Amino acid sequence: MADLVPSELRGTAYGLFNGAIGVVAFPASLLAGLLWDWYGPPAPFLAGGVLALVAAVEMLAIDPQMRR
Prior knowledge:
Blueprint: H1 10-39, H2 42-62
Helix pairs in contact: 1-2
């Protein structure tokens, strides 16, 4: 982050960056908690694994050079 913004805006950039991560992390945590409640402890881990696999396949489809 420090290299992407002017020095006088670093604090603002870090604040916005971490705020965005917090906003995105909340629904993910909520979904994981609901899966845990509804289906038990393995459910959020299985869902995370499936989503990671889907993301990896999509990344390979987008950039075939990543296969090397």
